[in-house]
User: Which sequence fits this backbone?
């Protein structure tokens, strides 16, 4: 373990994992808050606590599940393709429209916790896959990746959102990173071992090409979509001094 | 006179509102006071996939009302008329846009928001407003 800490490769991997966690679990806390909105005040804190606990537990299970699945032949290829897609999705500007929005804010505690777990299952997959790919089977790195994602689930600062808003290039760097990690996963697939032993340069060419692929595809699709509405009005109310009478304009 | 007082629920924004009340009392004609709270958009891909726009909007409105609470109490206590407004977006940009659209004659705001780490990483809202605003800006310490 101590020797591992001294190699630069280890610290590069640590950096990759922090980036992936930051980019892919930034909105977890918001989802938990939304799911607990309709709970009575007394239960809300409990709901958030159980939700965070459940989300963390689920993530641990999914991570180890993903790692054992990825050791099977062919599955690394599938994992790599999924990761490429996650990277492209990250770069794409957000559509204004909402999806089906099928999940309701539940009014009872267990309903809310169930909602959080289902939501977290959907959200964790990207993150778990990314971290598993970046950790390359190193258990310490996997555990580290899990530990880093925990405060991001629990703590709703939306730091990633704000950072991306301020420094949009982060999103491109993140997309390229996911592409690169997908490429690394691809070259570690056992099926290609003999090919890679004869053509050693593929170890860095494939990840590089994958990173460019994500950037290129993301850029191409993004170009066809309109820009975001930067500022949106939510509500406007006028308050008269005399009667404290409020009327809503819109 | 139209005064805009951006509010984020922090101590500094309360100072700003108190300062505005004090100043307003010295004016010959009472200025129109507008409170503005800006919420960062939380509608990311996952959130949109999982929740209705309506649920997200309600949540953000609630957060906004919470941030406005302290400032509204000060104005209610001073028995002043005012309007309040919540919008979604990047705070400095939303403030500037609102000031522009409403042809505000003065922006009164706190020097610091409540976001410690984020502010350190991103720069302060007051600085950006000060730099880019067409209307006069008063920063309260």
Assistant:
């Amino acid at each position: 373990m101590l020797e591992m800490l001294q190699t630069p490769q280890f610290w590069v991997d640590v950096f990759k994992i922090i980036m992936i966690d930051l980019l892919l679990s930034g909105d977890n806390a918001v989802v938990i808050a939304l799911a607990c909105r309709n709970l009575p005040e007394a239960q809300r804190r409990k709901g958030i606590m159980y939700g965070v606990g459940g989300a963390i537990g689920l993530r641990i299970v999914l991570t180890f599940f993903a790692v054992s699945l990825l050791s099977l032949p062919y599955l690394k290829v599938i994992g790599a393709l999924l990761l490429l897609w996650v990277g492209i999705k990250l770069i794409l500007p957000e559509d204004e429209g909402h999806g089906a929005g099928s999940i309701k804010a539940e009014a009872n505690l267990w309903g809310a916790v169930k909602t959080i777990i289902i939501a977290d299952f959907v959200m964790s997959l990207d993150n778990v896959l990314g971290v598993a790919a970046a950790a390359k089977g190193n258990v310490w790195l996997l555990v580290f990746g899990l530990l880093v994602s925990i405060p991001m689930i629990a703590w709703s600062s939306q730091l990633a959102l704000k950072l991306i808003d301020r420094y949009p290039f982060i999103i491109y760097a993140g997309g390229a990173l996911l592409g690169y990690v997908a490429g690394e996963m691809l070259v570690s697939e056992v099926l290609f071992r003999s090919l890679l032993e004869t053509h050693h340069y593929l170890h860095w060419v494939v990840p590089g090409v994958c990173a460019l692929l994500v950037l290129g595809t993301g850029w191409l699709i993004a170009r066809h979509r309109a820009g975001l509405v930067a500022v949106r009005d939510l509500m406007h109310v006028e308050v008269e001094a005399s009667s404290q009478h409020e009327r809503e304009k819109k | 006179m139209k005064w805009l007082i951006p509010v984020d629920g922090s101590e500094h924004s309360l100072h700003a509102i108190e300062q505005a009340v004090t100043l307003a009392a010295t004016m010959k004609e009472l200025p129109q006071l507008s409170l503005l709270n800006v919420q960062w958009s939380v509608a990311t891909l996952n959130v949109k996939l999982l929740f209705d726009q309506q649920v997200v909007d309600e949540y953000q409105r609630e957060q906004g009302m919470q941030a406005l609470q302290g400032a509204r109490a000060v104005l209610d206590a001073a028995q002043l008329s005012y309007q309040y407004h919540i919008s979604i977006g990047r705070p400095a940009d939303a403030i500037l846009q609102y000031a522009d659209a409403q042809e505000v004659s003065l922006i009164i705001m706190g020097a610091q928001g409540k976001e410690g780490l984020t502010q350190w990483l991103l720069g302060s809202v007051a600085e950006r407003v000060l730099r880019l605003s067409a209307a006069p800006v008063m920063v309260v310490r």
